[in-house]
Amino acid sequence: MQARIARVRAKVDHLARRKSEAEARMAVIRSAPGLPEALLRAEQAALAELLNRIAAADRHLRGLHDAMIRRRDDPRVRSAGEGATRHALRGQIARLGEVLQDVRRLHVDLSAQLIEFD
């Protein structure tokens, strides 16, 4: 179980780094008005792809957590340390939710800028 949590933590860390990179790109976009529409559309596509990846990871982690809850409720199957693992998993789900909200905000900001071109 600890290996699984380590993989989950690594995936969430990776997505959080991608979010930070997107925030840095958005800061450049905000500071340089008049950028070509194609550049803004490419960034919007990248943000949409990142949103999809984060949402897929969120669904996966929630599925793991649900499976652990079902396992907890089954009296035939128990193992030591599952409570701590569930707790760690809930923490990663919460962190991923924050990353998802931040990327959604970036996507909305960029979409608002693109409305000016339409």
Fold and architecture overview:
The structure is a single chain. The chain is mainly alpha-helical and 118 residues long. The chain has one domain (2-115): Methane Monooxygenase Hydroxylase, Chain G, domain 1 (Up-down Bundle). 86% of the residues lie in helices and 0% in strands. Helix 1 (2-31) packs antiparallel against helix 2. The protein is elongated and about 65 Å long.
Which features does this protein show?
single chain, 118 residues, mainly alpha, Methane Monooxygenase Hydroxylase, Chain G, domain 1
Summarize the structure.
With 118 residues, the protein is an all-alpha fold. 86% of the residues lie in helices and 0% in strands. The N and C termini lie far apart (50 Å).
